[in-house]
Amino acid sequence: MNAAEASRRVRERALDLGFTTVGIAAVGPSPRRDFLRSWIGEGRHGEMAYMARDPERRSDPRRVLPGARSAVCVTLDYLPIAAAGSAGPGLTAHVSTYARGRDYHDVMGPPLRDLLEFLRAETGGSVDGRAYVDTGPILERELAAAAGLGWVGKNTQLLHERGSWFFLGEILVDVELVPDPPVADRCGSCTACLDACPTGALLEGYLLDARRCISYLNIELKGAIPPSQRADLGEHLYGCDICQEVCPWNRRAVPAGRPEFTPRAELRSLTLAELLALDPQAYARSFRGSPMKRARRRGLLRNAAVVLANQGSRDAAAALRRSLRVEPEPLVRSHAAWGLGRLGGQAARAELERSRREDPDEAVREEAEAALER
Questions:
Q1: pLDDT given at position 88
Q2: Pair 174, 307 in one domain
């Protein structure tokens, strides 16, 4: 089978498997490899050590799959019917739209591997390939842009005329396929995403400082959120969609209508106070199969403590006091202490005084003292 016929067949099969769009790119060194090195050198990746691990390999798919010649890139739309605002009537906090349903790795992985097997069968089984869904050391947005699936916008996400509410997946293969032409950048003079970013993470068009990004702070950062940035989280429990929500191209977005991405029942029923009280077993049951597992229990409850304090709701103080008193994880207790200092009140002061004297963890005692001083 020649390259043109194989390319046609793999495109058809990708759509049959349920992917929204498909494109093909030739692989080679990324034209943005110097930018990646500079971005890492300036520390803009924060504590995401995996980003700094062997950037030369990340910049050239041929170092990931020796002999790679083509990348088959796919998208899968995920926008549910109701996307904006809080996760649900119970969990009155913002959860990024992509994270409200099933884990997209589990949804996209099997059909992407099926697509690779199809290509192997079509070419006699001799194809060497690797399938990735946001997991491999490759610059997936750049590959998808090279495959004509959109352009990397000023918010640093892949954009298309139908919006940006989609996941990306890739297959690297060692056969030559016919590449698709790239599409032109259509951000123009628009600065909606830059103007709307509440933390100034988008320093200028096409440049993100992850250390300021809300999604970095409440997902990727595994330790304590810097005190100066906790109020910046606002009501963002997990992730942040602001730069997508304000993008004019997303006015054209159509809900995907896929049941896998319907918000989970737990997000419709759990309150923030109940989330903060989940023990490890209850957490595991509630978030099994959810992409929110990436933050782990300690990270998600840390975020819940901050959001509760930022909201200042009626049950926030009681939930934070309980967490500071009985929560086994010091990271969560330390953020509960900060939250009580933000809320104030006699009961909060009494609990902070107790924590400053009795908590076995030094970091928690220091947070309690700082909260009392405020």
A1: 57
A2: no
The rounded distance, in Å, linking the Cα atoms of 374 and 368 is 10
Q: How far apart are CA 207 and CA 220, in angstroms?
A: 18
Same domain, 36 and 90: yes
If asked whether residues 85 and 13 sit together in one domain, one would say yes
Q: Do residues 299 and 219 make contact, with C-beta atoms less than 8 angstroms apart? A: yes
85: left (phi over 0), alpha (psi -120 to 50) or beta: left
Name every residue whose Cβ is closer than 8 Å to that of residue 199 and which is 6 or more positions away in sequence: 212, 213, 214, 229, 232
Q: What residues make up the domain containing 10?
A: 1-263
Please say which residue of 263, 294, 322 terminates a domain. 263
> How does DSSP assign 151-202, residue by residue?
EE-TTSSEEBTTBS-EEEEEEEESS--PPPPP-----TT--HHHHH-TT--E
Residues composing the chain: 374
List, by residue number, the catalytic residues: 134
pLDDT digits (tens, 9 = 90+) for 205-264: 899 999 999 999 999 999 999 999 999 999 999 999 999 999 999 998 989 889 999 998
Joined together, the tokens standing for residue 331 give: 């990271």
125 in the same domain as 160: yes
Q: Which pLDDT band holds residue 90 (cuts at 50, 70, 90)?
A: low
Last residue of a domain, one of 263, 288, 314: 263
Q: What are the E-state strand segments in the chain?
A: 21-26, 70-77, 94-95, 129-132, 151-152, 158-159, 166-173, 202-204, 207-208, 236-238
Q: What is the pLDDT of residues 171-205, one digit of tens each?
A: 999 999 999 999 999 999 999 999 999 999 999 88
CATH of residue 279's domain is 1.25.10.10
